[in-house]
Amino acid sequence: MARSVLALVACMVLLAPPGSVAQERASADRPQGAEGTHAPTRFDIDAQALATALRAFSEASGTAVLFDDALVADKRSQGIHGEATARDALRVVLLGTGLEARFSAMNAFTVALPDAAPTDVPAMPEPADVPAMDDRTAGLLQSALERALCARVATRPGAFRLAMQVWIDSAGRVANAIALAPSDDPARDDKVLAAVRTVRVPSTLHRFSPVTVLLAPAAGHRCSESGAWEG
């Protein structure tokens, strides 16, 4: 079964709404508004060998992905289920592999080793036998995360990119949250993770844990005064 990936474009999504995760530290160093030029596409790529996952991504997105077979050999991808731009979706597919995507042409990406491997970003564990979330369940988690993040000015999403992994315990509490791909502001990241750790959801969401969440920049979305995400 595929690991659950909740991507909140501008805020969040999981399996259904817009989504993806940034994989490389280098992407956090680029301008925070640099989004792909393509409209979000639905991706349903299960956890599998990285080479086959990249081919599935290429077919689903209509973009060319150039990679060396030797470079991706023996590597696995956690996959992605949800809507995302091609650029973000590829980052999700590469999450935890130690590789990065480089935009090489209008409709082409090259998969390569990063120029300098980050030393402070946790490695992604091997994909576990975790069921994929359905749209309703994803919506419950997304709403809970949005309320927690919108409640504080310092953590409101929409202007930065941050990928994190969230563990939910048997009581429905977020037992832990760690940054997988930090943003360009460590202090803000700490506040976001602290806010996420206050979240409570139905205990049934425990079986989908851990969940990978992406906060990504997007225009036209904002937190309302009531603490809800609008866009």
Present the secondary structure layout.
Elements: E1 4-9, H1 25-28, E2 41-45, E3 48-49, H2 50-61, E4 64-66, H3 69-72, E5 76-77, E6 80-84, H4 86-94, E7 100-105, E8 108-112, H5 135-150, E9 162-168, E10 174-181, H6 186-196, E11 211-216, E12 222-223, E13 229-230
Parallel strand pairs: 1-11, 4-8
Antiparallel strand pairs: 2-6, 3-5, 7-8, 9-10, 9-11, 12-13
Helix pairs in contact: 2-4
Please write the string of helix (H) and strand (E) elements: EHEEHEHEEHEEHEEHEEE
Write down the domain tally: 2
Give the total of beta strands: 13
**Alpha-carbon distance between the two ends:** 31 Å
Principal-axes shape call: globular
Q: What class do helices, strands and sheet pairing give? A: alpha+beta
Rg estimate, integer Å: 16 Å
% residues in beta strands? 25-35%
Biggest beta sheet summary: 4 strands, mixed
Q: Please give the count of helices.
A: 6
Binned, the helix content reads 10-25%
What's the rounded overall pLDDT mean? Answer: 76
Ranges where pLDDT stays below 50 over 5 or more residues in a row are 9-37
Give the strand order of the largest sheet, numbering strands 1, 2, ... along the chain: 1-11-9-10
Your description of this structure?
The two termini are 31 Å apart. This protein is of the alpha+beta class and 231 residues long. The strands form 5 sheets. Strands 1-11-9-10 form a 4-stranded mixed sheet, with helices on one face. Strands 4-8-7 form a 3-stranded mixed sheet, covered by helices on one side. It is globular and about 45 Å long. The protein has 2 domains: 20-112, 3-Layer(bab) Sandwich (Phage tail protein beta-alpha-beta fold), CATH 3.55.50; 135-230. It is 24% helix and 26% strand. A hairpin with a 2-residue loop joins β7 and β8 (108-112). It is built from 6 helices and 13 strands.
